């Protein structure tokens, strides 16, 4: 049998490896999204990337004369390592700029809020929502752009997102006897400027930790007003499985990229057991714990 040779160079092999990985990721986009929370909790991302790298490496072997080609060991290790890095970085969560060492802002979020809170609420915030805005100044500021040019951390979207949610800020029509909870805040850019007409979308589990996957209960979106304010009146969500209690949020400025993240309670007993929990995404609660406050920071356009 003639000695087999490899049909592709190392460079083209790496290119094909990246393409194969990309195709696999695209073909399994829905499944990858459903598994992402589970992977982040139970399996190190590096191990997942290595498994895909091994699959990609095996697919790069070619056949000539009915025989599989033996790839030199040191080249195979290099190929697997490179493919592993591609997969790890393709599936790793986004990285964020550390606030330490950044230049201080000339205009802080506190000074911006002092002027914005004096402005009248937008027409979408009516009825029981109006008095909440008067209480915003009493809530402590959540970490954001006053400490530096840092965007709000991204988090996984999770498997329960549904597009085409209705536009509304009051989700309590079906609340019944459930405990009510309000979420309020602002959307700023990294220059501490309010972002008007940004789409803010929310979805969350009910008091039993269950999502409505058939309809749009506990799902909604709204647009920020001229002062960058957003707010929802809904119910108190609860934990489920390995997840602590949280609200899913998507923020998209007009013409900007989508920020997908989650908001948490400061002292929920399940926080310590949830590996997705991020203390930077903790809401500030009022005295009776019926309102949570968080200000989102998105990249400047």
UniProtKB/TrEMBL annotation:
InterPro entries, sorted: Intradiol_dOase_C, Intradiol_dOase_core, Intradiol_RC_Dioxygenase
SUPFAM superfamilies the UniProt entry points to: Aromatic compound dioxygenase
A Pfam family of this chain: Dioxygenase_C
Stretches with biased composition (Polar residues): 148-158
Membrane-crossing residue ranges in chain numbering: 38-63, 69-91, 112-134
Family: Belongs to the intradiol ring-cleavage dioxygenase family.
Protein's name according to its UniProt entry: Catechol 1,2-dioxygenase
Native source organism of the sequence: Sinorhizobium meliloti (strain SM11)
């Amino acid at each position: 049998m003639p000695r087999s040779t490899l049909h592709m160079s190392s460079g083209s092999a790496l290119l094909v490896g990246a393409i194969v990985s990309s195709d696999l990721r695209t073909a399994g986009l829905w499944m990858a999204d459903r598994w992402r929370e589970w992977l982040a909790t139970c399996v190190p991302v590096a191990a997942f990337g290595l498994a895909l790298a091994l699959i990609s490496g095996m697919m790069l072997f070619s056949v000539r004369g009915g025989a599989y080609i033996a790839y030199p060991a040191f080249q195979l290790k290099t190929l697997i390592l490179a493919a592993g890095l591609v997969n790890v970085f393709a599936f790793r969560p986004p990285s964020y700029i550390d606030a330490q060492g950044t230049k201080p802002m000339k205009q802080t979020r506190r000074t911006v809020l002092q002027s914005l809170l004096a402005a009248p609420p937008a027409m979408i915030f009516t009825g029981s929502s109006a008095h909440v805005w008067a209480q915003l100044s009493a809530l402590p500021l959540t970490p954001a752009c006053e400490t530096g040019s840092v965007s709000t951390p991204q988090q996984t979207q999770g498997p329960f997102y549904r597009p085409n949610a209705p536009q509304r800020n009051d989700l309590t029509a079906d609340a019944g006897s459930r405990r009510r909870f309000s979420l309020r805040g602002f959307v700023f850019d990294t220059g501490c400027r309010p972002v008007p007409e940004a789409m803010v979308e929310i979805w969350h589990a009910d008091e039993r930790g269950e999502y409505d996957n058939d309809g749009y209960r506990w799902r909604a979106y709204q647009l920020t007003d001229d002062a960058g304010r957003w707010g929802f009146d809904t119910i108190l969500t609860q934990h489920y499985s390995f997840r602590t209690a949280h609200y899913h949020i998507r923020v998209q400025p007009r013409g900007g990229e989508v920020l997908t993240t989650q908001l948490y309670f400061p002292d929920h007993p399940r926080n310590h057991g949830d590996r997705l929990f991020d203390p930077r995404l903790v809401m500030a609660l009022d005295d009776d714990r019926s309102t949570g406050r968080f200000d989102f920071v998105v990249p400047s356009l």
